[in-house]
Amino acid sequence: MTEQPQPFRDPQLPFAQRIDDLLRRLTLDERIAMLHQFAPAVDRLGLGAFRTGQEALHGVAWMGPATVFPQAVGLGATWNDELVRRVGEAVGNEVRAKRAKDDRVGLNVWAPTVNLLRHPLWGRGEEGYAEDAALTSAIAVAYTRGLRGDHPHYWRTAPVLKHWLAHNNETDRDISSSSVRPRVLHEYDLRAFRDAVQAGAVAGVMPAYNLVNGRPNHVSPLLSQQLRSWTEQSLVVCSDAGAPSNLVDSEHYFDTHEEATAAALKAGVDSFTDHGQESTVMTGRIRGALEQGLLDEQDIDTAVRRLLELRFSLGEFDPGLDPYADTTAFDTAEHRALAQEAAEQAVVLLKNDGLLPLDPEERGTVAVVGLLADACKLDWYSGTLIHRSTPLDGIRARFGADRVTFAEGADLVRLKCAAGWLQIPETDDGDSADRGAEGALDPALLAGRTDLPPLTCGDTPSELALVDWGNGVITLRAPAGRYLSVAEDGYVRASADEPGGWIVQETFRREEVEGHVGGHRLLHIGTGRYVSVAADGVKVADADEKISGDTAAGAATVFEIEVTERGEDTVARAAAAADTVIVVVGNDAHINGRETEDRTTLDLPAQQERLWRAAHAVNPRTVLAVTSAYPYALTDAAAALPALLWTAHGGQAAGTALARILSGDVSPAGRLPQTWYTSDAELPGLLDYDIIASRQTYLYYEGTPLFPFGHGLSYAAFTYSGATAELDGDLLRVSLTVTNTGTVAADEVAQLYVRAVAPSVVRPLRQLVGHRRLHLAPGAGQRVDFTVAVTELGHWDVAHGRWTVEPGTYEIQAGASSTDIRLTATVTVDGEPSGPRPVLHRGLEAADYDEQLATEIVDRTKTDGDAVTATAPGNELLYRRCDFAAGIGVVAVSAAGAGAVEITVDGRTTDIDIPATDGPYDYRAHEVPLTASGVQDVRVTLRGTVRLAGLTFTGATE
After folding, report:
1. How far apart are CA 44 and CA 41, in angstroms?
2. Bridge partners for 406 per DSSP
3. Which residues are CB-neighbours of 198 under 8 A, at least 6 positions away?
């Protein structure tokens, strides 16, 4: 007789039935263990170990060599959904191929990041796709579909979206609260997640470190109220690293870790990423929460069920049926070609007065200069390069090495102290592997090299290349190409290939020394200690001699910095001798803007500003190529230079791609995924998440940007014609023709926007509702059809707590950018009028304001609800068009804290004293007489520590 398999092993049964069977077989301890990121094997049932989390933002990250595609913001700049789907497929295949050889590689990938690029100073802007929710969600849908695969049951990889929710600041990221009004929540932040989840290729989300409206994302009711309402599919919520502990340790939101863990699990967190691979801390907290009655086994089983469904979908229990089990596609010719194609499509031509393209067949020299001219920069979420192409490499290959000259533009310096000249000992370095080449589950733990001798001081100086990256942050590089770095033993060595690591050990600050002309101390930023010269080598001060106080300064060696050659002089010489100059500027993705560190300015670092000015002063044929993870305020460069390009860090083929754009082999067609502003003065505060009130992003910004959202030029020219727009039930159908009237084949990105002509509330100036990247031969035209759900024309109606499409006229705009509109048409929609606020029936929720000044939204309770509190005197909440019908006689104020609430209706003001309550969550009702009738605006001012939950009104006759 054939032995029947256990039901959970039977592929003929539905996943749900198999999971039921497996759940019954698992002990409580085994189920609890599954809730940690590193779930152990269950040998008695033949279950292997499993971990959630494999970084794969633009290639397989942290696990050694892989194909490196452009940064996520670069993929966003392609505006090409199909291309990004193919990139996702390639990344998913490489995850599978690496997993077959290294079981540390996980199939639950933590990608993509769909946080919107609301503010250009956000340090992690490189990880997102766009400032627009529609574009972000379209690119995310494409990438996740590629990662997931197209099998109906089994997934190539299981993507998790990051980071839920309203997360755009690294400053105080684990304790800051994003104040997000309902309209911004529903129209903007949720939108990017919702469309990707509804597309069916997302396995879960990761909550962000921050709080939203005073409540940590890891205990957010929106996980159940919104996220899990969008789909019938099971979704796994994976915590961010260390975030469960933050609920107590830094946020102080709960008194005990048992309370915090129980609250997170009940809110919907399924997998706890905390304490690295040591799972016993978290499982002990879960067990403690059970014993204290804060959880029951059903809470645990709900989470385990979701995790098991994830594992079943990845084919773990059906290896013979898993269509992706034998995937070997890794670093293939197709992947290399795709990396180049993606890098080419990500390049944005910002300005061109006819200098570009350069003809490779014409004789003449090209000077390639700048701090990033011979660099191929990676970021924290990159894999290790297998192939590498810098701008210099690409231009030499395309134009001929004999025609290309190079000048980096770093300042060459020598450092002298009382003990002599700073010098780098000669050493046979060999062929050491790049940092992280072997892969690491936690690359933050990778240590610097200690096998090389430390720097010394003596009679013979070593010349160093000094780069100032802005904000006083410098790097120093040895003649052999390695950066000065500090390892765990505290010694300074020329040991790093590039700046990098979770805590960068290759950056320093110069501090002038009072009373010592030309003297500087060197502060090592990573350790916070000063550099000193000792008998056994150059090192940083001991741990108890950090930067606080005179003792630390006294421990520092004073150096005189002698500049042997200024970088701008080197660049000027190269530029003057060349026919054309390409100045490559930008950022290092580990310095002054990255995870844990926001930028402080849009300005290009002064050293790089000097380089392009020096080149242009001697050669008007100067092209500025910006390679960066974020926008700059290049106002002077845009006015002075004949050509500007931008690309995100383009991965392994970045240099080849740039050269093919410069030479005209490919016509540029990348488009900006976020607004480029003219200066810092145009920006709201980094923590101001109210894009409506502060007029952020192209949706609401009323100024003139340096370069607008969607901007990008071409070597061809395109016309738009024949636009039609008509309503078809619940759909808006728009059609138009795009024609290439230029002389070269090129891509064009047709963009479709909509604008409410006479809205009853503040609406976007225009809003993207469709885009299409087309390739057209010279003279060719193509009809482009867009289908837009009429609901996309709507907004969140705070008066009635619902999504509303107002009746009226909507203008349809088609063009080449958000400001380059070529065609318009109008449609009239028979929507549902919003009408005045029915305050007698619904009251006024405090957070449902139309406008506010100097307030913030906070948590009404620790589990649900919003309240509003003042951040400064002179605050106000405005609620427009409140319908009091025949009249009211009483208002009831629900509030906590202590102070007063001032209500103004129809020119009359009523003060309500709020006696101190028993803490911030002790809301009490305070009734006072208030008369009003008809439709009136209501204005509310808060004094003291009052937290206002809402107002209710009683009719005069009640």
Report:
1. 9
2. 368
3. 230, 231
Instruction: Say whether 550 is catalytic.
Output: no
List of residues 6+ apart from 728 with CB closer than 8 A = none
> Kind of pairing, strands 924-932 and 888-896?
antiparallel
Which of 202-206, 268-272, 705-709, 832-836 has the least mean pLDDT?
832-836
DSSP state of 702: -
Q: Which of 132, 195, 240, 588 is catalytic?
A: 240
CA nearest 595: which of 709, 480, 401, 443?
Answer: 443
DSSP states of 152-174: SS--SSEEEEEEES-----TTTT
The predicted-structure confidence for 276-329, as pLDDT tens digits, reads as follows 999 999 999 999 999 999 999 999 999 999 999 999 999 999 999 999 999 999
Q: Three-state DSSP class for 607?
A: helix
Q: Is-above-0.90 flag for pTM?
A: yes
Percent of the chain with pLDDT over 90: 94
Q: Omega into 112 within 30° of 0, i.e. cis?
A: yes
How far apart, in Å, do the first and last CA atoms of the chain sit? 80
Among 501, 507, 385, which Cα is nearest to 448's?
A: 501
Contact criterion met (CB below 8 Å) for 948 and 940: yes
At residue 773's C-alpha, the angle toward residues 769 and 775, to 5°, is: 155
Indicate the pairing of strand 537-540 with strand 529-534. antiparallel
Q: Are 662 and 392 in contact (CB under 8 A)?
A: no
What residues contact residue 813 under an 8 Å CB cut-off, 6+ apart?
Answer: 752, 753, 754, 755, 766, 821, 823, 824
Render pLDDT for 517-531 as a digit per residue (tens, 0 to 9): 889 999 999 999 999
Categorise residue 218: left if φ over 0, alpha if ψ from -120 to 50, beta otherwise.
alpha
Looking up tokens 């230029």 gives 742
3-state DSSP call for residue 585?
Answer: strand
